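Task: sequence in, structure out. Protein: Pectin acetylesterase.
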Amino acid sequence: MGNLRLLFNKPMKIFWVLGVVFVLISRKRVDCFEGLNVTEIVYDEQKNGWSNRPLLVGLTLISSAAAKGAVCLDGSLPGYHLHRGFGSGANSWLVQLEGGGWCDTIRNCVYRKKTRHGSSKYMEKFIPFSGLLSNKRSENPDFYNWNRVKIRYCDGGSFSGDSQHKGAQLYFRGQRIYSAAMEELKSLGMRHANQALLSGCSAGGVASVLHCDEFRALFPGHTRVKCLSDAGLFLDAVDVAGQRTMRKLFGNVVRLQAVGPHLPRSCTSRLNPIMCFFPHRLIADVKTPLFLVNAAYDSWQIQASLAPASADPHGNWYGCKLNNAHCSAPQIRFLQGFRGQMLGAIRRFGKFRKNGYFINSCFSHGQTERQDTWFAAGSPHIGNKGIAQSVGNWYFDRAETKIIDCPYPCDKTCHNLVFAHL
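Result:
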């Protein structure tokens, strides 16, 4: 579809390249938006209202990982970025699993291993921490002084596979990377945490669901442990051509990377493992408290799952995908149906008091890593509740938090993604 310029309805500029949405906020990659191939663009925080640059945090490679076979796609060491907590948060840990799409074929994975999502050789030495990872109370009121960690994503399978392809020299070791990273963090003090939160966005949001109960098991029973999945509620939905594009993608990932044995038995004991890679089939059975942040009209799913070019050869959805204001009445009805499926998918999950969610009616994808959507003047709200406040209320048991927005176009606080020709 060519190179496109991506704009927000709120004042923000980013790019959409090769059918993949990608954002940088305050010189930060927002990996929720990534698919397979991306071009990095810098966001000008001065122009768009932020004068404070975010904290830059250095990369640490896990030296013990090689002996465990816990390596990136190309065989290099995995890594993480850690900023130590302080004050009242010195013994609290927030662990974020990086997102960035999946690779589902040998060809895609060979390409990916020459990028930062397949090799630590290409990872930035420093990355900015903002949004949920910010170290400023004014930007992140509940978690700013915790130990905050971002585990880099370099396996292409949501930290869940365990296989390899010798001919292509590919290592699918996501499960081992996750385990090696947890062991490393425990040795750095996480084993003594009095409270912990596992989070992730997009592909990382899938991983935070898959590993939630596993994460809980790392700590003694008295530790407060919960999980957060942002933009991870990928649905097994029918696309505009009547096919299931997302099921095909996830099926390829599960088979290629031997994900099946590492999926929750609560699901695989009754369903095909491919079905169990979809978080909506897992969330109600997760024992650990879990919070979902998701846009009801998830931009990534609209672009890549509901109306991909393969399902829309005549481009009938092209204008609608560029700008939700250009969607026809039948197209809006289709998207309202998708929202209905999302709300149906969380119905049983929501019956448990321990769980929570914030489902807003925005055309967006990933809202916890971006400062403008996490906690800032003009950030998205449902009623009088923003995302950061909602997550904090749920985590600290200040209030039961299950918030669903009214249908599009009622929400005027959305930071919708709008696409325009260069």
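The CA atoms of residues 308 and 314 lie 11 Å apart.
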